[in-house]
Write a structure and sequence with these properties.
3 strands; 3-stranded antiparallel β-sheet; elongated; single chain; mainly alpha; about 140 residues
């Protein structure tokens, strides 16, 4: 990856390091021409920052600066909450989330009872008596 000296001059070393990590995740910046907007554009699904310019080379040079500004704002806590949600991407199924495979929760049924009866059943000894009665 090319070293970007303009990043070193404009941003702190932490922001530059994080920007380089982000650029390595993005890979090659390949702008496309958007006929509707009339300009060259680039954006990546991992980062909600897009950049448009007059030429493809302008977009290739300008996108890392915009990305560094986004990272700097994120590190200082100045991002809007909806943008932060776009970046985190913690929705949906995650590795290790949920109940372990093979474990099953016992089946249950909701029944509405008078309060006195429900309170009586909440006592463990009474519940055990009811279970013994059912098995007999």
């Amino acid at each position: 990856m090319k070293k970007r000296p303009e990043l070193d001059k404009l941003f702190s070393p932490e922001v530059v390091a994080q920007t380089r990590i982000a650029l390595s995740e993005i890979g090659e910046i390949k702008p496309w021409f958007d006929a509707e907007m009339g300009c060259w554009c680039f954006e990546h699904p991992l980062y909600p920052e897009s950049y448009g310019g007059e030429s493809a080379s302008e977009v290739e040079a300008g996108y890392p600066l915009y990305l560094a500004q986004l990272i700097e704002a994120r590190m200082s806590g100045e991002l809007a909450p909806f943008v932060e949600n776009l970046i985190k991407g913690r929705g949906g199924k995650r590795h290790g989330a949920g109940r372990p495979k093979g474990s099953h929760k016992g089946s249950k049924k909701r029944v509405y009872l008078p309060v006195e009866v429900a309170d009586w059943l909440m006592d463990e000894t009474h519940l055990a008596q009811v279970r013994n009665l059912m098995q007999a």
